[in-house]
Amino acid sequence: MIGGHCGERGDLMVNSLDVAGVFDLGLRASYELCDKVHAAADPDTHHLVRTYLPAPKHPHFHALHAYFAATEDISDDCFADWAEETLQEVAEGRSDHRLRQAFVHTVVVWGLDVAVLREFLEAIRLDRATPPRCATFDDLRGFLRGAGGAPARLTLPLFEPLRQAAHEMSQLGEVFRLLDVCRDYGHDLRTGRCYLPDEPVDVVVRRARLLVEEGTAVLDLVHPSSRPFLEMAIAGCRLGLDEVEGTVPPRVDRCEESTSDVPRHVAVIMDDRGRSRPAGERALLDVVEGAAEIGLRFLSVFAFSTRHRALPSDEVGGLADVVARVVRDRVEWLHTRGIRLVWAGRRDRIPADLRAALEAAERRTGANTRLTLVLCLDYGGRAEIVHAARRLVVDAVAGRVDVDAVGERDFGRYLYAPDVPEVDLLIRTSGEQRISNFLLWQGGYAEILFTDALWPDFDRRALRRAVDSYACRDRRFGGVPDQRAHAVPRGA
């Protein structure tokens, strides 16, 4: 069986490209590429498509979602050519572009409305030229209709509507896009974009809920085979709004007495007291997403201590296998979100396959700048300092370093991850109140927060609360209040 997604229908394995009637090898390759791009860019929607829609529609949905993602990722200097080439290829009914070939084929097969495609491309063009500054929710909707509503309307024919449903579908698309805006709030601010209106978040959420409720009418307007997918998508909208409600991204002016900004570097000791590893993995992904949302630049997590070497060998091996699997499975998830993975810890004692997976992930994500995730694996703070001291001694003996001129900054260059700054906020879960040999050098002036929540129960909302608490603290770096102007700078 060549390429394509295989889905189960009873005991029969069904290849979605076969049942969709796609047999040309070049076109199959394009659809397979779109499948991968869709999975990396939006794994949740990708899963819903494969689980709740008939198999013949899978390739076409992947093609549309992959095109939307690629259009938004294309560089500014290439966007005009990308849009013009797309419209020309759609008019001709064919494309030789690796990704657009499947998209154009889908547009032709399903007779999709080119005017709606133009609306989407124009919305993205305008957003690149003049990012919106929205005073009200109605102002925001002008952006959401083109960037979210238009893609939703373009997919509508694939749901085989029994009656006109463009308005309701557009409303759901607007809410999907609004959730993206909320998740990317911190990153957008750093790039000079502010999509959220000046209105309180609860007002925005309330208006969005009305759009969702009106949009649910689409369930009665589409073919019954599409309803399960849309029902799950609507449930996801509601859940996403639940997460947004009552949370305001941390801002410098939140606490009038505070001199602290949003922390640059948060470190977490993930203590689960033996709870299930799958739950811990889900919590980690949620916290990483939350860290990116609120604008953290560095997030360090304690995954595996040097002290874990004392555990039985089979348990150590099992934990290593879990970490290797998670890294391999999630590297594209990290990469598509602009997250860089850095490994801090001993590299000479872990299994070869785990080391290979980690180093491959470091290379794959090395150019990303949105957030740096520091995975502390086979790590100990004292061991790191000893390791750094040994390397410094070697350079001193070789004459590469003047020992008398070595300061703290110089020593810091010999640590496992020398470009990672000092820790601003250190969080430990499970109610234990110790730092367990974690980031001893980097955490010398960290604010510390102990929480009773076990790690699997610590999520992005808990991270927001921790950051809110930090924002109201008065950091003095060991000085007294009137000496804050002379506080030790980061990295000193």
Query: What portion of the residues fall into strands of 2 or more residues?
Result: 5-15%
Helix fraction, binned, reads: 40-55%
How many discrete domains? 2
Shape estimate: globular
**Amino-to-carboxy terminus distance:** 60 Å
Main β sheet profile: 6 strands, parallel
CATH class of the largest domain: Mainly Alpha
CATH architecture of the largest domain: Orthogonal Bundle
Uncertain segments are 8-12, 248-260, 482-492
- Major sheet: arrangement of strands: 5-6-4-3-7-8
Task: Count every helix, treating DSSP H or I runs of 4 or more residues as helices.
Answer: 18
Walkthrough of the structure:
The protein has helices at residues 16-19, 25-41, 43-52, 58-73, 76-92, 100-110, 114-129, 137-155, 166-183, 185-190, 201-215, 227-244, 277-294, 313-336, 352-365, 381-397, 408-412, 460-471, and strands at 6-9, 12-15, 265-269, 298-305, 339-344, 371-379, 425-428, 447-450. Residues 8-12, 248-260 and 482-492 have low confidence and may be disordered. It is globular, with a radius of gyration of 25 Å. The chain has two domains: 12-244, Farnesyl Diphosphate Synthase; 255-474, 3-Layer(aba) Sandwich (Undecaprenyl pyrophosphate synthetase), CATH 3.40.1180. The longest helix is centred in the middle third of the chain and has 24 residues, at 313-336. It is α/β, with parallel strands linked by helices and 492 residues long. Helix 13 (277-294) links the parallel strand 3 (265-269) and strand 4 (298-305). The chain has 18 helices and eight strands. A six-stranded parallel β-sheet has the order 5-6-4-3-7-8, with helices on both faces. A two-stranded antiparallel sheet has the order 1-2.
